[in-house]
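Incident log, structure service

09:12 report received: a user says their structure output differs between two submissions of the same chain.
09:20 pulled the input from the user's history:
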Amino acid sequence: MRPRGTLAVIAALLLGSALVRLGDGVGHALARSGSDTARAPDSPAQCETPADLQQLLNEMMARESRLSEGEAALADRREALALVDAQITRKLGELAAAEDSLRRTLAIAETAAEDDIARLTRVYETMKPKQAAALFEQMDARFAAGFLARMRPDAAAEIMAGLSPEAAHMLSVVLAGRNAASE
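09:34 re-ran on a clean worker, output below:
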């Protein structure tokens, strides 16, 4: 029978504890309701802020406002930089495409110029040596030497033989100078 008595005592203690807690909460609730009736129902609850704390609060709010403005300005700059970066990237792409186009055009022009010089060299080679020599006498020595250097040796020799001694000497000096410079 003792275990039943122990349980009854524990149950009684728990019930007593609950009543004390409930009673304590009722006391606080009654105390609050009593203070509410003392206060005017239309006036909001306010606490007065000391002057130094109000000044600090105002400074903090001003600082927060400046920081927000600075962040907005930074965001605008970041956006502007992103736009400029995209524009630069696009312009670089266009520049690379233009450079490739120019390279192809220059290659075509160089090939065309080389073809023209080769064709003109063949024309001079097939001319009668005396007629070609008369033309070479009138040309600039470096220009004429360029053609002679490209010709077959036998055709170049026949043209050189038809030149005046001064012109032949000048062309020989230019040709020798070219060969010396390339070695």
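09:41 both user submissions now match this output. Likely a transient worker issue. Closing.
09:42 reviewer note: Helices lie at 2-38, 51-126, 129-138, 141-150, 153-162, 165-182. The first helix runs from residue 2 to 38.
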